[in-house]
Amino acid sequence: MTRIRFALWGILSVLSAAWLLANLPIPDTLSFIAVRNLLVQYSGVLAIGAMSAAMILATRAKWLEPWLNGLDKSYRLHKWLGITALVVSVTHWIAAKGPKWLVQWGVMERPKRGGPPADAAEPGAIQAFFNSLRDTAEGLGEWAFYAVILLILLALIKRFPYKYFVSTHTLIAVAYLVLVFHGAVLMNFDAWSQPLGIVTALLMLGGVISAALALSRQIGRRHKVAGRIEAVRSFPSMRITEVEVKLDAGWAGHDAGQFAFVTFDRSEGKHPFTIASAWDPATRCITFITKALGDYTRFLPEQLMVGGAATVEGPYGRFTFDDDKPRQIWIGGGIGITPFIARMKQLAISPGTKQIDLIHSVPEIAPEALELLKADAEAAGVTLHLMIDSRDGALTGDRLRQMVPDWTSASVWFCGPAGFGQAMRGDLVAHGLAAGDFHQELFNMR
Predict the structure, then answer these.
(1) Are 39 and 88 in contact (CB under 8 A)?
(2) Do 261 and 162 form a contact (C-beta atoms < 8 A)?
(3) Cβ-contact 321, 413 below 8 angstroms
């Protein structure tokens, strides 16, 4: 989370500093309209900058993962940038429309339109061309703003079905291209030759390329591999389905703890699932474990059939258990057990030297699922601690410290409900765990 905050505030700070440099020196006295004009320009720069960065992150570029520590963190930053763009865009709209509203309400007189200073140079050909497009840019930008507001709000509404979220979210790329035109035309022309213009132009360029990739459906294409369903296994009492897919050539392998986007039905589209198996190039099989948490996963057991087609895109993520600690504590909350199953299967093939405790906190567990989990733990040399909510209560920091007395020498790897993870992290850090030793998968793609 620290990297996400640093990246978010870093982007906004660079844009703010560049804007301030472009507007210095600010006059000692400013009229209402002058302040409004500054606010319009500043909010516009922040809005298009945040949207551009969000568009770049949406490409799922693997070179960005090391910087943000995984695609899950990248998507969280993408979400925060979207919310930032939403807030500053509304501010930009209010600042642009405010004087007109105040005049209509009789609060202020219509400002006199002033021409350029008497000593101002004649605009060049490029500036004159931009000036001729101002009315068009304002009109198109307003409608694109309304579209973006609606699409971002739909993305933030969790009850809005995932498959419709994916299809409508792509439309943001169209609105973004219109807003790039809006911003390029209406930005103070002199700013283009200053650091503000250079930074904004680079962000816009990256955003335009990203939008083109999204609209041409090129994002993730190089990392897609076709496959066939080899086996389907259900645990009805736990609402869990295990699917084994045999992949065609092209999958380069994966690390335990990574995830992929899987398409079983083209009309439904791709969904993110954590990989629950180690990679064996001899079998080319990969396993996913899903839980019925929504409309799609609820009916998945009925829809999947052996021999059915599947497309797998990935792998993504850096929840890969790499650290220099002599021991690790794994916490799997509910379906969050999945990456730990994959890691145990990998350790069964290639044993490690770390001492590992796995705490699985779950509402209930089917006997056959428990036996499989015990077998994986034994084969991997992992100490399993099972906590069933109705029997054992909730896992807390105190209970973890009782289970693993020398917990201070360990790193903690958590996958499960976000609130549960935040509570555990806060408790353990407050009791002496280094913040960097708590690793949490932010497995939420919207």
Answers:
(1) no
(2) no
(3) yes
pLDDT at 294 over 80: no
Name every residue whose Cβ is closer than 8 Å to that of residue 314 and which is 6 or more positions away in sequence.
Answer: 223, 254, 258, 259, 260, 261, 275
DSSP label at residue 320:
S
pLDDT tens-digit profile of 60-82?
A: 998 999 899 899 999 999 999 99
Residue carrying structure tokens 């549960």: 420
Please give the Cα distance from 262 to 435 (Å, whole number): 32
Report the alpha-carbon distance of residue 169 to residue 331 in Å, rounded: 33
The C-alpha angle with vertex 215 and arms to 213 and 217, in degrees rounded to 5, equals: 65
- The per-residue DSSP string of 179-246 comes to HHHHHHHHS-GGGGGSHHHHHHHHHHHHHHHHHHHHHTT-TTGGGEEEEEEEEEEEEGGGTEEEEEEE
pLDDT band (50, 70, 90) for residue 115: low
| Chain CA centroid to CA 347, Å | 29
Contact 286, 245 (CB under 8 A): yes
Query: What DSSP state is assigned to residue 336?
Result: G
Cβ atoms 410, 325 nearer than 8 A: yes
Q: Enter the pTM of the model.
A: 0.89
Average pLDDT, the chain: 92
Q: Is the dihedral of CA 431, 434, 435, 438 positive or negative?
A: negative
Rounded distance between C-alpha atoms, residue 288 and residue 277, angstroms:
8
Give the number of other CB atoms < 10 A from CB of residue 196: 26
Residue type, position 170, single letter: T
Sign of CA dihedral 91, 49, 259, 401: negative
Up-side HSE of residue 44: CA atoms within 13 Å toward CB?
Answer: 24
